[in-house]
# Entry
Amino acid sequence: MLISDWSKKTLLILGGGFHQVPVYEAAKKMGVHVIGLDRNKDAAARFLADEFYHIGIADPDLIIKTLNGTPIDGLISPAADTGHRSIYALSHRFNLPFKPSLPAVTSSMNKAYFLKCITDLNLPGHAYFHAGRLDELNDAALRMGYPLIVKPVDSSGSKGITLVSLPDHLETALRHAMSFSSAHEIILEQYIEGTNYGVEAFRLQGKTILLAVNHKTDIFQTNFETMQHILSPALPADLQKAVERSIDLICDKLLIADGPVNFDFILKDGKIFFHDIGARLGGNGLSDLVKLAYGLDLPELTIRLALGDNLDDQTWFRKRTGYAGLRMLFSQTGGTFVDLDGLNKLKTHPAFSGVRLFVKSGDQVYPFSHANFKLGYMLAAHADLHQVMDLLSQVDEKIIIRIKNHEN
# Structure
């Protein structure tokens, strides 16, 4: 099917935060009628939707009630795992063109399920244990030894994750992780110190047509907030092939034949340790980076897939045409955002490609303890990787983020 008039199509987007903004922008550019949902009444994307409802996205029955008979032609839940079960239920309920597989949904919402998948495929994996009882988790930690990563079984965006190096810190980390888990379950995961990478991929007809590896730099070692992404680093040919083979194995096992999918892995001593998956578009500005480095508009492609468009023109493998990177803008203290100074000093740089700012003067901001608390990011792109790195290296020095502290 080739859709000629997008304005006659209605797309339901689950989630309306700043991570989802690029998808709303793509849908509006296409002329699609957009219905957005987010429980936050101040959701960043609310003004980009034709209709917007302030409800949670995890309850498909509530969503159906809210739609009140309004027909939809497709739905997506970009950059968030909370809506995966709703996507699965509603796509079957309304017989929509794109229906995710149950294994894909489960692996995205349950990190323990994904780690078992890695074990079943005989791929290098982390030792792990998961449970809902604190006494069981304490006993498991004693057996596993330290350091350990403590995280909710069902959270995303680095929420609730702590690196624990000493037994005395375990109890606090367990309770912190539990506060972010809807399932009330926690994973203890062996900590592997290596180089952190992410992958943005897209599958069509059982083949991977995009595989964009990005190098990730974390800012706080104990909480794993990502400060910087570089797309795409030059991996040795054998490692690149190993990543490609592993992702094809994982996607085939999870029945991910079509659509976006993202992964996180650690590279240590030539081995690839996958530890997370999202069968959806990634957040953190990665769609912006893919467009800059590969010329591929992932939000638009995902919308086309969701609405049942013919994607035969996209079945060839996409190759990188340049380098791209982003640097997070964040505050280490809470307070009120005042302004951003120094941007003009970087706009003349040959790699400068824009800024996405998610706050305005007077907004409440918080310390950068997880992905939702970043203020925005600086984008860089160039044919020369050194130019990209040079621009990003200047952000912390030349950009001044003015915050009025609460006590002032």
Q: What stands out?
A: DSSP finds twelve helices and 19 strands in the chain. The longest strand covers residues 207-218.
